[in-house]
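Re: the request from the purification team.
They wanted to know what the chain is likely to look like in 3D before they choose a buffer screen. I agreed to run a prediction and write the result into the notebook, where they can find it.
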Amino acid sequence: MYMKKLAPAALSALLMGSAVMPIASANEHNAEVEVPQIQIDPVHIFNDTHGTVEDVRVGKDITYYTVKDGEQTNVLEITKDTLVFDNTGKKVELKEGDKVVAYTFANKPQKYIYPPQFNPEVVIVESKDVGFVEVDYFFEDLTNTYDILKLNIGKETELLNAKGENVTAKDLAEKYLVVFYTASTKSIPAQTTPSKVIVLEDYPEGSLNPVDEDIDNIIATDFYGEAGTTMVPLRSIAEKLGYKVEATGKGAILTKGNVSYTITRGEKTFGYNKAIRTLTVAPTLKDTKTYVPVEFIEEYLK
């Protein structure tokens, strides 16, 4: 799958803004010129599942690991092809009591059941040894989606694909990578020489997520325009995405796992966990339903 730092079509998972940045991009020739700063939100590339393995159920071809994080319960479907490493890059076997983070492509079809089940691309098990892991899309210059981390490949860096075959540094550009490292610079972006990099196979484009199809149908049949923005029904879409929606009288509180949104009708700002975010148009009440800008669905809920 090939991604560019270009403005996408509507209803995409890219975030766009314009600003003069103090750090020049690879294609920037004049630091005084205002250029679009467009980045891919990792939240929409991977679903990351945190928690501790509390139950293991062995099936014929799949082993089901129940992972709990507070009151949130998820199930990981692990096969013989699932990549499982500790935070130093060592291949390990999942077991009860392990603290894990599992990364699953967000565009992968998901069973609409409870507790949610994920078939992850890679699972990282926390160990007592020092080691950091970054799972993200990396551009041609080997910086990740938010320009937070840049890779400098060294002679000792182990480079592999998802099948365990050796690859070269040029095979890392414009790919989804699992990066293992122990230290990075304090620069912006931080730079690191990783100990190990694994190239993930792209999830096939065009794979249809039934939930996304349902949401597209809701948007197509229940919307209206306001100030150049498409307004869509909050509850029906949020519940379809697995959020619990609690009415407050002035709006709604949406919760899913450790994520919480507080929406207030008539106010452009909304709560995102302990932070504040801003919409282009304030949520409104219409036909007894709360409507929000479609950007809120695309940029936050999905």
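For the purification team: Residues 210-221 form the longest helix (12 residues).
Please add any questions underneath this entry.
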